[in-house]
Design brief:
Blueprint lengths: L2 H6 L4 E3 H6 L4 H10 L3 E4 L2 E3 L5 H9 L2 E2 L1 H7 L12 E3 L13 E3 L16 H11 L2 H13 L5 H5 L5 H9 L7 H10 L6 E7 L2 E7 L3 E5 L6 H16 L3 E5 L1 H6 L1 H13 L7
Parallel strand pairs: 5-6, 9-10
Antiparallel strand pairs: 1-3, 2-3, 4-5, 7-8, 8-9
Helix pairs in contact: 5-6, 6-7, 7-10
InterPro entries: 2Fe-2S_ferredoxin-type (IPR001041), DUF559 (IPR007569)
Pfam family, one: DUF559
GO molecular function: iron-sulfur cluster binding
């Protein structure tokens, strides 16, 4: 048995007992450690040299990666994860390292296998619901639904607490990015039609407010050919009688008051109405 290949296929950090269940003998594992192809993490766990530090740390401390840390690892849209990893620990486990990590002790929705160092996506979303502000949590939930990592039907079958149920009720798959998820709840108070990802002149617009006011939201890496194409589309929309407001990641995340003020003034002038 190639213990290095087997370990690599499972993320680079594994339980010794899992290796033995797969057919590796104690002698084979000991030889791999002596040769340096495996290294000891802690009692009962081994890793490949250079394995993911977060996984090694989780194995060493008896926790799993969860919340925004694991959400980011899954490729979900996360507003901010902070400098400390978010980990999950059993509600009945001993003391966890609170200075080194943000520790979540909520009872998981899906049982955690003792060989796993990362939470299932359902548990990730649960801890996000408990941990993050509503808008930031909604961005993660919608990202998971949009990517098909979980379905709304599946989540509704679970025993969700009220904070998670609120996010599920608000979430849908129409936002193209987390930035769009942040924007929509901030504009609902205006009681105007808000339509996401509407096709106009051969391209989708991020948000159509009323009949004629278009809000385009550029991501953090919106440059190059994509930027040129979007500028050309803005010009086409203007010639068609639409009014375009284009904002950036920084505007939405750090200067929302200015964005909202611009939209309010555009609405006050009737720029959202068809003429």
């Amino acid at each position: 048995m190639d213990v290095s290949a087997w370990t690599a296929a499972r993320g680079g950090v594994v339980r010794v007992s899992a290796l033995m269940d797969a057919g590796a003998s104690r002698h084979t594992i000991a030889t791999a450690r002596e040769c340096g192809t495996l290294v000891r993490v802690t009692r009962g766990w081994v890793a490949l040299p250079g394995a993911d530090d977060l996984l090694v740390g989780a194995a060493r401390r008896g926790v799993v990666l969860t919340c925004v840390t694991q959400a980011a690892r899954l490729g979900l849209w996360v507003l901010a994860s902070g400098p400390r990893p978010h980990v999950g620990a059993s509600p009945h486990a001993g003391r966890a390292p609170t200075q080194e990590a943000v520790v979540h002790r909520h009872r998981p929705l899906v049982p955690r296998h003792p060989d796993h160092l990362v939470d299932p996506v359902e548990n990730v979303l649960l801890t996000v619901a408990h941990c993050q502000p509503f808008e930031a949590g909604l961005a993660v939930w919608e990202s998971a639904l949009r990517q098909g990592l979980v379905s709304a039907l599946t989540m509704r079958r679970l025993a969700l607490p009220s904070c998670a149920r609120r996010l599920l009720d608000a979430a849908d798959v129409w936002s193209d990015s987390g930035l769009e998820t942040l924007v929509l709840p901030r504009l609902r108070w205006m009681r105007l039609p808000l339509r996401r990802q509407v096709w106009i002149a051969g391209h989708r617009v991020d948000l159509l407010i009323g009949d004629r006011l278009v809000l385009q939201i550029d991501g953090a890496h919106h440059t190059g050919a994509q930027r040129d194409e979007d500028i050309a589309h803005d010009a086409t929309l203007t010639l068609m009688g639409y009014h375009v407001i284009r904002v950036s990641y920084r505007h939405v995340v750090d200067d929302w008051a200015s964005v909202q003020d611009t939209i309010m003034r555009a609405v006050a002038q009737g720029l959202h109405r068809a003429r």
